[in-house]
Amino acid sequence: MIVYQEQVMQIANVLAGYSLGEADLLRRAMGKKNAEEMAKQRVRFATGAAERKHPKDKATHIFDLMEQFAGYGCNKSHSAAYALLAYHTAYLKTHYPVEFMAALLTSEISKPENVVKYISECREMEIAVEPPNVQVSDADFTPDGKVIRLGLPRSRTLPQRDRFDPRSARQAG
Fold first, then answer.
1. How far apart are CA 153 and CA 140, in angstroms?
2. What is the pLDDT of residues 11-20, one digit of tens each?
3. Strands of the sheet with 128-130, listed across from one edge
4. 3 state DSSP class of 147
């Protein structure tokens, strides 16, 4: 199974005699899904594999697998970063679900369809999303114990400096 772009480069190098520079061009062509360049690379791969006495049907099959990989593959260093991000996200969602979902809802505030989707997910997680409360709500979605409070309404027509800041108002007394 091909998982990383670097594996495509290594396969091209070993089976078809690509230099590492040529293998990088193949990787880029796959990443951009450039049909014209991929057709050239298919011929180059088949020629190189034949020169190294690899059966044509196997070389074609391997190139087909590499081409399929182009739809989902990423490079190894990105994979590590994505894995770490997924771990942190899962940890926060598991151990701090109210805070996590409040932050997620706030981050998606400009996309109403996503807000609806995530409020529905809150219900599945048994987290209530309740109306604003002047005593605890901030301008955004606010964690409040085991519930999430909607943010206090704010006018989008006012400049940021003139908007009501509920937290400052509560602190001022």
1. 9
2. 999 999 999 9
3. 128-130, 147-149, 142-144
4. strand
Which string of DSSP letters, residue by residue, matches 15-54?
Answer: HH---HHHHHHHHHHHHHT-HHHHHHHHHHHHHHHHHTT-
pLDDT of the residue at 170: 66
The model's pTM is 0.60
The helix (H) or strand (E) run that includes residue 167 is: helix 166-172
Q: What's the rounded Cα separation, in Å, for the pair 123 and 134?
A: 23
Token duo for residue 82: 């994505």
Cα 71 vs. chain centroid, distance in angstroms? 15
- For 111-143, what is each residue's pLDDT tens digit? 999 999 999 999 999 999 999 888 888 888 999
The token pair that represents 46 in the structure block: 């088949």
The two structure tokens encoding residue 165: 């800041």
Are 28 and 21 contacting, i.e. CB atoms less than 8 angstroms apart? Answer: no
pLDDT tens digits along 76-97: 777 788 899 999 999 999 999 9
Instruction: Give the span between the Cα atoms of 69 and 137, in whole angstroms.
Output: 47
